[in-house]
Amino acid sequence: MKLLAVENATLLKKFIRFPHSLYKGDDQYTPEFNIAVAEKLDPKKNPYFRHSDAKLFLVEDEAHQILGRIAVTINNNYNTYHETRVAWFGFFDCIDDQNVCQLLFDAVTNYCKANDVGSLLGPANFTTNDTAALLVEGYETPPVIQMTYNFPYYEALLLNEGFRIEMNMGAYYIATASVNDRSLALEHNLADRLAKKNISVRQIRKSDWKQEVAKVRSIYQYAWQKNWGFVPPTAEEFDFLAGELKLVVDERFAFIAEQDGKAIGFLLAIPDINEFMVNSKNGKLSPGIIFNILFRKNKIKNLRVILLGVLEPYRKLGIEAVFFSKIIQQARKFGITGGEASWILESNKEMCVSAEKLNGRLYKNYRIYSKKLQQ
Description:
By secondary structure, the protein is of the alpha+beta class.
């Protein structure tokens, strides 16, 4: 076996495409688009690289077949925000072989030690604002849009490398038909109460994309600031992340709460376009997939509630309940079977309870791991 540092276009292509061969024959595997992964790893396109760096590694056998991949990054903004000195690993994929895994993490550890880093967290690609966490329960169904997927043996590989569980996250499935109508009936009373405080809830307007993204960011960077693992994205990073979603954002399923024109909360649910990807295992953005995304989104039967946040002074006024009521009503109106609320931190008790009150079923579990490095 041989460790390779990814330092040219040929190896980068292998790095991006390795999961397609690793998961060949796995019915649940739903790849990310190659072009999207390439842009995320491109320092010229991803603004993350304006403040931080990343190193990519591969392991190949004597026949030059790829056996594993990994990335490591020192997120300078995260370390400044949390007053710490840690690194993150991500883009981790590996055959079921501890020796291959060890070779990958030896490279990561050497990089960390050379940069005076004492702890390692992950997986995250590159931050918790991106795709993150290891799937540990819930292999019966494919992942929804921008959620991770991996073989069950991954956790054993990490634990054998000395990692421990740092944080658990859950995904709740909420069936549209199972939501109690009583929860929805409260919306009018809550909306009237909010109106007396000059608070209103509306659908987002994609025609004002830049302005809407700026409003959402103004909420996101404060509403999430106490969440474990959070780091505020820069304006450029947030625009980059928003750009990844623009094609699939549907005005019918995204809402903003405002008080006197000031954005104070938002809910973003997106159609699960992975329903179009489950039979396409090579990560290519084909004309057929583009056509489906542009013109057949109304055929999608499930949503992912990807973000919900309200600024702290406005919490517990009923805004969250109005958001939930509106999204359920829209789902029923447009024939949506249900949706996944994910991921939700185990420590975010309020959101877990909210999902359960909507008869949400915890059906997938994910984890972030940590490891202290010996100097």
